[in-house]
Amino acid sequence: MTTRSFHSVALVPPHGQTCAPLPVSTAERLPLGPLPVSRYPDPHIEALDKRFKGSPGTGAVERIATGFRWAEGPAYFRAGGYLIFSDLPNNRMMRLLEDDNHLSVFRSPSYNSNGNTVDRQGRLITCQHAGRRVVRTEFDGRIVIVADRFEGKRFNSPNDVVVASDDSIWFTDPSYGIGGNYEGLRAEQEQTTQNVYRVDARTGEITMVADDFTQPNGLAFSPDERKLYIVDSGLTHGGAAHIRVFDVDGGKLSNGRIFAEGFAPGFTDGMRVDIEGNVWTSMGWADPNEDGVRCFAPDGDLIGKIHLPETCANLTFGGLLRNRLYMCASTSIYAVYVNTQGAAVP
SS in 3 state form for 247-308? Predict the structure, then answer.
């Protein structure tokens, strides 16, 4: 008689909530292409200052993909000409080809992946809510865990991530992914605060670089990497709704101060920086007339807006020349050519 041993199902961690894609036929979904009432110049692009380079002139905001529950974390791969982004509650990552606008599932389940970026070698770096970790996808498809614990305790739910020129990986760790079973898995919080971390590329050492945020969210370096901008979306938990900026030196942050504020009752989520140091940040959750993107000059002045028909969560510069702004906004992906370039490399 042969006996077999079985591992208990309870010992196998779940992948996170897997929701059904929106049960809407292609014909009934939001239309793709330029937004209604678009013309040149596009009224969806609002310049408040001559420094704003939101449009090259003959360009308009376009909806290029739709049918998601909450689109997040766009990352553009120049070598392949495609956009990777997360459909967070549907527990999948999507790929949108730039040449023919073909949309397909890149990874499912995705452990409720949220923020994504591309490192200097062209590899995908991903924050996973349900996995409570940051991972890297190698060229051969292997997935390597970059960080899942600090001082022996699991992270909350890594949210957004950037990579510096020294290959260090910086990420935020709010508690959104462990608060319920929709965008992650409900779990006890092991870290006592919601922090920002840095992973050393050479040693793998993880350092906490900021611990005084209510809910740290999007982050982006200035072009010279001497400053790091970090969103606090703590309004969701009784805290602030603003962007702070820090001086960066030797892998450490100092001199934190408010860069932009006055977002309440709405708030920002993700952001990117252009080659001139302007900060482009998402906006939503309040006045629908303010849904979209705001652009701030390096001195903190609000210089322009891009208006979208849906709340915007995150954005990135893409295209071969890094002059096409991709915006993840609720159920859709929007894009517009701008008259500048993103600072992030590649």
Answer: EEECCEEEEEEEEECCCCCCECCCEEEECCCCEEEEEECCCHHHCEEEEECCCCCEEEEEEC
Kindly state the tokens that stand for 262. Answer: 């006055």
Domain 32-337's class? mainly beta
- What does the block give as tokens for 89? 């509650």
pLDDT one-digit tens code per residue, 7-33:
444 456 678 777 776 666 767 778 899
Give the burial string for 187-225 (b: 16+ CB within 10 Å, else e).
Answer: beeebeebbbbbbebeeeebeebbeebbbbbbbbbbbee
What's the whole-model pTM score?
0.94
Domain residues of the chain, as ranges? 32-337
For 164-203, what is each residue's pLDDT tens digit? 999 999 999 999 999 999 999 999 999 999 999 999 999 9
